Amino acid sequence: MQLKPLFTFLTSLAKNNERPWFQERKAAYDQLRAQFEQDAEFWFQELARLDPGIAGPLGRKSLFRIYRDVRFSKNKDPYNTHFSAYFTASGKDIETPGSYVHVGPNGNTLIAGGLYQPDKTQLTAIRQEIDYNAADLKAILAAPDFQRYFGTMSGDRLKKSPAAYSVDHPEIELLKHKSFTATHQMADADVPTHEHFLAHVVDVFRAMVPFCQFLRGAIVA
Q: How far apart are CA 160 and CA 68, in angstroms?
């Protein structure tokens, strides 16, 4: 995936987000998409080596569509203005912990992972795991590479303590989380070449593997 042509295409798409414009340039999109599929295959293979739990479909199956679902959205633009992929043990199932790549111009490139808005059963299991094994999670969050790329765990949090836990619980700040994510945002200038970006995504994924494994272990335990 050549980043400059992709960014140029997506920038123009953002200004002309309508079907006639897109259809006239469908061939260019198909070429860019095919290149992104190749990159997704590469990232999937590298991630599978780092994390044996990633054993789902091939990388291209992890790509999201460029076509937006506008049925329940006030924004009726028909197309996304980024390329993205999500890697888990079951393809791009967003209801399981995984690693995410989002590529777009104007500072809209990021590498992230974890579990966004787990369901009630998952949330209960993760909080229980934090209650029992907070030291393990804190060691993951304190690891040098995690600090380097993510700084801290992100995600929506409760303002008050969860009902099942005392306000003076020693790990109450971790237990307040409703989502458990880590995000590495990138400026356009930090994505200088295709080769650099390919390798950088793998490096960030490597730093995120223990975090995803902790969450996955909590859910399947």
A: 35
140-176 per-position pLDDT tens digit: 999 999 999 999 999 999 999 999 999 999 999 999 9
**Mean pLDDT, to the nearest integer, of 130-145?**
97
Q: What is the pLDDT of residue 57?
A: 54
Q: Are 98 and 87 in contact (CB under 8 A)?
A: yes
CB 28 within 8 A of CB 9: yes
* Pair type for strands 98-103 and 83-87: antiparallel
Q: Using alpha carbons, select from 205, 214, 209 the residue that is nearest to residue 85.
A: 205
Q: Where do the DSSP E strands lie in 38-173? A: 83-87, 98-103, 109-115
- Nearest 5°: the CA angle 144, 153, 72 is 140
| Edge-to-edge order in the sheet of strand 98-103 | 83-87, 98-103, 109-115, 180-186
β-strand pairing of 180-186 with 83-87: unpaired
15 backbone dihedrals φ, ψ, rounded to 5°: -85, -20
Q: Model pTM greater than 0.70?
A: yes
